[in-house]
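Revision sheet: structure tokens.
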Amino acid sequence: MTGQDGLPPARRLSAWTTRRWLRVGVAASLILLALLGATGAWVLERTASLSQDLVDTRSPALTSSIRLESALLNQETGIRGYGSTGRAEFLEPYRQGVAEEKKHSTRIEELLHGDAAGLADLRTVREAVERWQERIARPIAASPAGTPSPLAAERAVEGKTSFDAVRTAVTDQQDRLQAERTRARDELLATMDLRNWVFLAIALVIVTLAGLVFEGLRRGVTTPLAQLGADARVVAGGHFEHPITPTGPADLRLLGAEIDSMRRRLVRELAFAEEARGRLDAQAAELKRSNAELEQFAYVASHDLQEPLRKVSSFTQLLQRRYGGQLDAKADQYIDFAVDGANRMQTLINDLLDFSRVGRVHHTHQSVDLDSVLRRTLSALSVGIEESGAVITHDGMPSLVADPTQMGMLWQNLIGNAVKFRRPGEIPRIHVSAERDGELWRFAVTDNGIGIAPEFAEKVFVIFQRLHTKDVYDGSGIGLAMCKKIVEFHGGTIAIDPDYTGGARIVFTLAAAPTQTVGADQEAGTAQSEQQPEQTRQSAQTEEPM
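Predicted:
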């Protein structure tokens, strides 16, 4: 048997992709579940409706009818006692019964709204009560107190007959209400049984669908993928000649064929890839050697600048001491410019050397008590702190595994900047805080100084970037760049808090344990680069003029 396309059903199904199988399966499951869900929703709604009718209407109506009967009995008892004795206290249960009768009668009317038979029974009860009250109760209650009412004796038989009619009407009403309540309860129980069977059927259908989905996924997805993965692992293990056997739906078979095509292409390109990797390894080794030489050259060059600069500075200072005041004012000014320029260049080179040493020379990771480091830093900055009158407070500092020298440089630059960039005429107030943030410690140095504009929040961490001229604030513009290098070397980050406007707040994080290690080749290169500058420094000291 063939279809309209001339293919047998088995061939047509084998052409289905995984997506098509999933779409058909999901659509069929959703339709079946929607039908079962609609049935379950109807059963639940029916159960709730019957339960509400039983709880909110039938049972309260029957209860109110019983209370109505009790109120009528109180009226009859009170009237009979008052008529036979003339004592006024017998009218109290009568009056109370009249009030209760009106209350419960109104309540029954509200509950049976829309129930014609129930309202008809209520009208019958009211009419019987009205006849009894009109002929018996009200006339006897209107009789003067103190003596038995003559009407009680005259209308005794009529009163009994009239109240028996009331009893009959109330009994008929209660019988109907009881029958309606029983019917509603039976219908509720039947609906609950139907609900239980419906949900049991839903559960069975869901379990069956889950089993079918599991089996379909196993046959159509997981088993073909497992076979494909096994073949791919064999190829990945180095057996590139092992063929990939496509199985499963059409798209998975197509995937297997593409992977096999890729395997064949990999076989063809393997030789070329091996050759290219060899060339790449050679280039990487050359680049590593070139970078190491370039780094060592920059470090040594910075040291070699010290000697000629020291000579310029020394001879310029010697000219200033020997000939200061002997030449004209212009000459003295030029000498001052030369001395100041040489000193600033000396400071700049020293700062540049300190910057280059971060991660190269100072990389001795050990347990560091930041409280002790902070106290030593404040002691080193005590002169500037006392001159400015700065008030410095700090939280308890943790102990970290870090380089102690770099931690001292970090605190000295941050606190020194906070003291330096203070507001004129205002006492600097600086606070250092620390708090744990997961695997990191988060620190903040907050001051009430001149602050940093948001547009310069990134620029201040770039080396040699200054926001003020040297006439306003001295410095080389390398302090925050060094702080950033130290923090990043210890696995953290540093930034300006843009939300703080009362000055400047620099927030940085440090890892509790080191995240970077320095290789033996770097240590050897550092030692080699330090050896030549030290010799240069010694030779320069011997040639410095007196």
